[in-house]
Amino acid sequence: VGELRKDYILDRWVIISTNRSKRPQQFKSAQKPVAHADPETVSHCFFCPGNEETTPPEIGRIEKDGKWSLRWIPNKFAALEPTGQQEIKTDNVFYTFSANFGYHEIIIETPDHHRQLQDLSPVELEDVIKVYQKRIEELMLKPSIRFVDIFKNSGEKGGTSIIHTHTQLMALNHIPKLVRDELAAFKTYKSCPFCDIIAREKGSYRRCFENDGFVAFAPYASRFNYEVWVMPKKHAKNLSEITDLKGLSEVLHMVLDKVKGLTDSYNFFLHYSPVDDFHFHIEVCPRIATWAGFEISSEEVINSVSPEDAAAYYRGEQ
Ligand SMILES: [Zn+2]
Ligand SMILES: [Zn+2]
Ligand SMILES: [Zn+2]
User: Fold this and answer.
1) Ligand 2 centre and the CA of 240: distance in Å?
2) Strands 102-108, 228-232: parallel, antiparallel or unpaired by DSSP?
3) What ligand is nearest to the CA atom of residue 51?
4) Main-chain dihedrals φ then ψ at residue 6, nearest 5 degrees
5) Nearest to 13 by CA among 80, 107, 84
6) How far is residue 106's CA from residue 96's CA, in Å, rounded to a whole number?
7) Which of 63, 224, 249, 306 is 20 to 30 A from 16, alpha carbon to alpha carbon?
8) Can you give the C-alpha Rg of the chain in angstroms?
9) Which numbered ligand comes closest to the C-alpha of 270?
10) How far is the CA of 25 from the centre of ligand 1 (A)?
11) Which of 125, 109, 249, 112 is nearest to 166 (CA)?
């Protein structure tokens, strides 16, 4: 049980979800040793083969040779629930809210307890992205769902609580503020700003990698140390409009492989438009620095690594 609440006056939103505080202590203790998991933990791991009955009932799976290679399930400790007041309402001017309505799911990316997403091959990664695509399409058809936020938490500073590699998905009854801001800014340009940005950044010191269909670059005003954006060169407003998932997984794999040389703590997430035109992208955020008072007070960030130096690292020049 919980609520989605808006700040008194700001366009700033919070999900109150006390369900997650019931998270058992065993998850907390599993938080630290992400890189070198104890083999013994496999028998206790909810996401490992053999323990399928310990998770909520499976939504879907991909099978290879009679065994699952990917599974997706409801989050046992969901921050969103598909019950209660679906639409956002305002009471007495200052209280804008709905239930914490939505779907909170887990995509288990591999049955292998000892590999992380950054260890998967581009071919394996392509299957993961196919599931992202499929699940966005399916959940966008559900009543009151306006946006499906797909994000990866890796490593301790990336906020992961379960070692076994997985992606989270939150299907929301609203478009999150950051995405709405990007969509609104996008509309103020005559043609797609991201198509023009790609054309410029491909020739800049911020370019990291590219293949035929995709480019990775360190954004001009990176918020995170070694932040990278992955974009299709051909204009596409969402993941469903992208046919070359092989090309996308190749470039994402190259980025994650380089992130691995820096830290196992990172987040990435998909930005797309559920309705209007936009330019799909993935933002990859290594979590090296800790945001503190200045960042929290101002929503401005001090980044100690220039995007130009970051890109040189990705290109293998440092
Ligand atoms: Zn496991
Ligand atoms: Zn574009
Ligand atoms: Zn974005």
Assistant:
1) 15
2) unpaired
3) 1
4) -95, 145
5) 80
6) 29
7) 224
8) 20
9) 3
10) 17
11) 109
- Closest ligand (CA of 42): 1
> How far lies 255's CA from each of 25, 140, 262, in Å?
34, 28, 11
Counting Cβ atoms within 10 Å, is residue 239 exposed (0-12), middle (13-18) or buried (19+)? buried
Which residues make up the environment of ion ligand 2, defined by Cβ < 5 Å?
192, 194-195, 235, 279
The predicted-structure confidence for 55-113, as pLDDT tens digits, reads as follows 999 999 999 999 999 999 999 999 999 999 999 999 999 999 999 999 999 999 999 99
- DSSP percent split of the chain into helix, strand, coil, nearest 5: 30, 25, 45
Question: Which listed ligand is nearest to 199 at the C-alpha?
Answer: 2
> Can you tell me the distance from the alpha carbon of 193 to that of 277, in angstroms, rounded to the nearest whole number?
11
Lookup result for tokens 């969901």: 78
CA atoms of 308 and 314, how far apart (whole Å) = 10
Find the 20 Cα to ligand 3 centroid distance in Å: 27
Q: What's the rounded Cα separation, in Å, for the pair 281 and 1?
A: 33
Distance in Å, CA 144 to ligand 3 centroid: 23
Q: Give the chain's residues under pLDDT 70.
A: 20-41
Least distant ligand from the CA of 197: 2
pTM value is: 0.93
Contact residues for 105 (Cβ-Cβ < 8 A; gap 6+): 59, 72, 73, 74, 75, 135, 168, 169, 170, 171
CB 263 within 8 A of CB 286: yes
Distance from Cα 177 to the centre of ligand 2, integer Å: 21
Beta-bridge partners for 281: 271
Beta partners for 102?
Answer: 172
Give the per-residue pLDDT at 23: 57
